[in-house]
Amino acid sequence: MITDSKSFTVSIAPRENILPILVDYNISQITPYLYVTAEDTAREFSKVFSHGIGCVINVAQELPQIMFPPQTGIESFKYPIIDTPTFPASHYFDVVADRIAVNTASNRRTLLYCRQGRSRSITFILAYLIKHHHLPLQTAYSLVKSRRQIAQPNVGFWSQLRSYEVTQQKMTASINGYPQNPITYGGQVFNKLSNGLDSIIAQVPMVNTFTNMMGPISENTQIGPYHNGRQRRRSVYSHPQDIGHRARILQRPNF
């Protein structure tokens, strides 16, 4: 191991055909409420406290979860991500991105870490920037790269991020364009109902059926079509032979 500063370490591989690995032990700030670092730094409580971190997220399957003293109020989460191109990291994109967004909305700072703060942590930071900041993948990566030089998701994660970018762009376009989209079936129905509402109301008699059936009718009451029809059906009691029968019905006591 050759250390060239307090924050960077170059690991020399035993075989010549393997490139040396640069590890950044800084806590890198990506947004005002989002940070990333390597595992060793995440375990240095004093550095975590000094940055005002309120939530620590471990995205490395092989690393044990860091638990902070309860009095610190720091939450700790772990998601079992394996740093291989074939691992389905995209299954966790939404849950991690939404966790960061909730913390940000509450003015809580989030620290992501994996083994080196290079691939897995960066992948989920990019997913967050794509979903909640609506940044194109390449723009998000340029931003992260400018603040953490070693940032480099593996090729499989990058491919998954590209698919995620397309999905999020379609969702955003659908949400933003729906109120102004007259082509959708729902939009057509809504427009027809709205535009023809006045004519529909003008053609339908607004009659309170319950009132006509149960309420007393005075001389000044305006009789609607339904009531006129009911009155015609009552005409059977207008014959002299039925008047007595009708009177007996009206005199029955109510229980």
From TrEMBL:
GO terms for cellular component: cytoplasm. Belongs to the protein-tyrosine phosphatase family. Non-receptor class dual specificity subfamily. Gene3D superfamilies: Protein tyrosine phosphatase superfamily (3.90.190.10). It comes from Rotaria magnacalcarata. Pfam families: DSPc. It comes from the Eukaryota. InterPro entries: Dual-sp_phosphatase_cat-dom, Dual_spec_Phospatases, Prot-tyrosine_phosphatase-like, Tyr_Pase_dom, TYR_PHOSPHATASE_DUAL_dom. Residues 90-148 form the Tyrosine specific protein phosphatases domain. Residues 26-170 form the Tyrosine-protein phosphatase domain. The keyword Lyase does not apply. GO terms for molecular function: phosphoprotein phosphatase activity. Keywords: Hydrolase, Protein phosphatase. This is Uncharacterized protein. PROSITE patterns: TYR_PHOSPHATASE_2, TYR_PHOSPHATASE_DUAL.
